[in-house]
Amino acid sequence: MSAGSLAGRVAIVTGGARGIGAAISALLVERDASVVVADMGCGIDGRDPDPSVAPALADSLGERAAAYAEDMAIPAAAQEAVALARERFGGIDILVNNAAILRDAFVFRGTTADWDAVIRNNLSGAYYLIAAATPAMRDQAKARRGGGARYDWGRIVNIVSSAAYIGNYGQASYASAKGGLTSLMRICALDMARSGVTCNAVAPFAHSRVTESIVPANDQQAEYKERALRVPAEPVAAMVGYLCSPAASDVTGQIFGVRGREAFVFSQPRPAARIVAEPGGWNEDALAAAVDRQLRDAFAPLETDLEAFNTEPLV
What we know:
By secondary structure, this protein is an alpha/beta fold.
């Protein structure tokens, strides 16, 4: 996409001041969108917020960027961020739900407080923003914002993780939240289809505070971390930019992955194999035999996402 391809659009990027979020914010501004950089500046665990982080990046991006430093895991903050976008820049067209925290622990050691904090930040915060912005997007569709025959500026992108689909040790809360973001993406894509608003998910493989925080459980995971830290964030931003562009106006409900120069589209759960009971239903022996004979070959392997993607990236 060229400079100017997003002219007139207004975006909110959560977690938008550092790492992958900062790369996305910068790319959207480079393509002439206006961006609200929503970032409370907290640590990777969600603690110790720093309200100077978002303004620092917004100032560096120029007059088409504004900072919002409140906690987006609070419904009122999502409403305020949308109001800021509309008042400052005239509308709201693009949402990028990127904000994420980590409080990893094995399921037999984690705390409910940490679970609640991760779900609230990583999943509920995305829902709050979508719920706050989509009424305005629907109104913009009715008003044909952008001047076309139909409103096709509306874009929602959820930043997810392969940990949601494959798994990783100690990441019950993080992976569950990212899996929830994928489900939220699918429902949002359906709910907003009549308004011409697309919704997709992107799973990044790149250097970020998340990859920096990985504590390898084995040699394979140590190799994965070393490789991941060499992968830049900019290709992830490029995919988000594409999904927000006119070229992707008919792309919705999909899960993409980006690792350096590689891009993937992920399959989504559908029945992979089928067995049918005889009239009268299953008995235990018959069911066990049918599973072994007709379903077992379709089982997903029990591996982590770090092992599944432990190959040399193309950067």
